[in-house]
Structure formats: structure tokens, C-alpha cells
């Protein structure tokens, strides 16, 4: 690719929730060519085909960090980050990129070790990296294909990115933690109507309560107790809105045999009593 050459395309075939490409392209930069400072709305991954450059970005706390990168490496820009990247003066980089997003993308990327505090991609597998680059090139070269065809190849790109970025031990740990969380959530859904405790949920996973609590909160953002209450209150709202059951019966149906305890928990979650909430939200 001669200097300075740019290929660029945007995805204009509708909106998809699970995974969606927004743009893709490749560029051979002139010496010192810079982009930014800028803030993106979606995830943007660059793979450096050759040459060198500098990424200047911010972490979760807004602290600026510089990364000097070269061919065979890559960098990920997270939504909301302020960043600038500059081609080297002597050996400017050529890169290929894809901008994408989806409801599980952030969790998947972070599980593979790509975070705002460490946005640098270094492959653990040359074979998987080659497949990833092949999918990126395919998207650039087949921009007029159907929406589902392009999204399918975006899934393949993301799969190769995640598997090539993650250390095998990290992948195993991530899968195990996902299994524990899934087991815990299934237990809550099956038994929320009973008088279950965090200890009961932890036993379902086979983990001790302390370690389980840490793993669960890291994955969901809530403690097990908070998750249980949130789930019960969500079910309570459904019953209050869609049925004529007395408040006491609603409370018993979501695991609160004592009406006073239920009313306190509901008001703590939503700021109003169950009766007040029902008056304002009951289905007509």
C-alpha cells in the first residue's frame, strides 16, 4: 500500500444489538500523521501491519499513558476514552481497523485482558492472529456484502481477537467464573420464592461464601445479596402491576413471608411502598 493511502467504509445496513460493525478500513500513514485527541462512541481496534507509532490514551481514572507500538501489535480504544495516535517519523505505521459494539462486547474484551488500563494487543497465538487479520481484511474488501454476511465475519474477527489475546490460563479462569455465575443466577431464579441466603447460593457453586462474593460482584457489579433483592423486587413489580394479589401475597410469592419485611425491602429499592407503586403503575 503506497503512502499515504486510505481505504474506508461504514456499515449502513441497519442496527443490530448483539454485535454490530460500524466502520472498517486500513491506512498507510505518512510520517507524523496523527488522529486526535478524540473520543469514540464504540470500540475501535487497530492492528498494526507494519511500521511504528505512538498511542496516547487515558485509563478508567482519566490518567494519560503513552504506548509505543509496532508491527504485529494492536491497540483497542474504548468508548469514552480520550486518545491520540501518531505515526512514527522514520517508520510510519500501516494499520487495519474495525469499529464495533454489542451488548456483551465489553465483558468479553475485559475477560481476554483488554481494558482501558491495558489497551495493547499482543497475540498469544500467531495462527489465531493470522485468522483475525484475514477476517479484518475480508471486511474491508467485501464492504458491499449483505448485512448478515458482514456481521458473521465480524463475529469471526471478534472470536479470533479474544482467543489470540487471552492467555490460556486466563481463558480457563474466565470460563470457570462464568460457570459459577451462571450456576448462581440459575439458583436464584429457581428458588427466589423460598427463604434462601447467600450461603445457599454459594453452596450451589461449590465455592466458599467469601470467594464466591468477590467473583460474583466482579462479574455482575452487584453483591449476591443485592442481586437476590433486585431479582425479587423485579418479580414483585410484575405481580403488583399484572395481578390483583394482596400485597402480603405478593411478598410471600417473592420470598418474604413477613409483609412488613417485604414492604421495607420494596420501599428501600424503589422509594415508595408496594401499594403506592401499584396505584401509579397497575395495568389498566
From TrEMBL:
Record SUPFAM superfamilies: Homeodomain-like, Regulatory protein AraC
Molecular function GO labels: DNA-binding transcription factor activity; sequence-specific DNA binding
InterPro entries: AraC-bd, AraC_XylS_family_regulators, Homeodomain-like_sf, HTH-like, HTH_AraC, Tscrpt_reg_AraC-type_HTH
A matching Pfam family: AraC_binding
Keywords: DNA-binding, Transcription, Transcription regulation
Family matches, as PANTHER family: ARAC FAMILY TRANSCRIPTIONAL REGULATOR, HTH-TYPE TRANSCRIPTIONAL ACTIVATOR RHAS-RELATED
Name of the protein in question: AraC family transcriptional regulator
Organism listed in the record: Candidatus Olsenella stercoravium
Taxonomy of the source species: Bacteria, Bacillati, Actinomycetota, Coriobacteriia, Coriobacteriales
Amino acid at each position: 500500500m503506497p503512502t499515504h493511502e486510505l481505504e474506508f467504509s461504514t456499515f449502513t445496513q441497519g442496527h443490530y444489538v448483539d454485535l454490530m460493525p460500524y466502520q472498517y478500513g486500513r491506512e498507510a500513514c505518512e510520517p507524523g500523521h496523527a488522529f486526535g485527541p478524540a473520543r469514540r462512541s464504540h470500540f475501535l481496534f487497530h492492528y498494526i501491519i507494519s511500521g511504528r507509532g505512538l498511542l496516547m490514551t487515558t485509563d478508567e481514572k482519566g490518567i494519560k499513558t503513552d504506548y509505543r507500538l509496532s508491527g504485529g501489535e494492536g491497540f483497542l480504544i474504548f468508548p469514552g476514552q480520550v486518545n491520540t495516535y501518531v505515526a512514527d517519523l522514520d517508520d510510519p505505521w500501516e494499520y487495519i481497523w474495525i469499529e464495533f459494539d454489542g451488548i456483551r462486547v465489553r465483558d468479553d474484551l475485559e475477560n481476554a485482558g483488554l481494558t482501558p488500563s491495558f489497551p495493547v494487543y499482543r497475540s498469544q497465538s500467531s495462527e489465531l492472529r493470522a485468522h483475525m487479520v484475514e477476517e479484518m481484511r475480508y471486511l474491508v474488501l467485501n464492504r458491499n456484502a449483505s448485512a448478515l454476511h458482514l456481521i458473521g465475519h465480524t463475529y469471526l474477527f471478534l472470536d479470533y481477537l479474544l482467543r489470540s489475546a487471552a492467555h490460556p490460563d486466563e481463558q480457563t479462569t474466565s470460563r470457570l467464573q462464568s460457570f459459577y455465575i451462571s450456576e448462581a443466577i440459575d439458583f436464584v431464579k429457581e428458588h427466589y420464592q423460598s427463604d434462601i441466603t447467600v450461603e445457599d447460593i454459594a453452596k450451589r457453586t461449590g465455592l466458599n461464601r467469601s470467594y464466591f462474593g468477590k467473583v460474583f460482584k466482579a462479574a455482575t457489579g452487584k453483591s449476591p445479596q443485592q442481586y437476590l433483592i433486585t431479582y425479587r423486587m423485579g418479580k414483585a413489580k410484575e405481580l403488583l402491576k399484572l395481578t390483583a394479589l394482596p400485597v402480603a401475597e405478593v411478598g410471600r410469592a417473592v420470598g418474604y413471608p413477613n409483609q412488613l419485611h417485604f414492604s421495607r425491602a420494596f420501599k428501600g429499592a424503589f422509594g415508595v411502598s408496594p401499594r403506592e407503586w401499584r396505584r401509579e403503575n397497575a395495568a389498566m
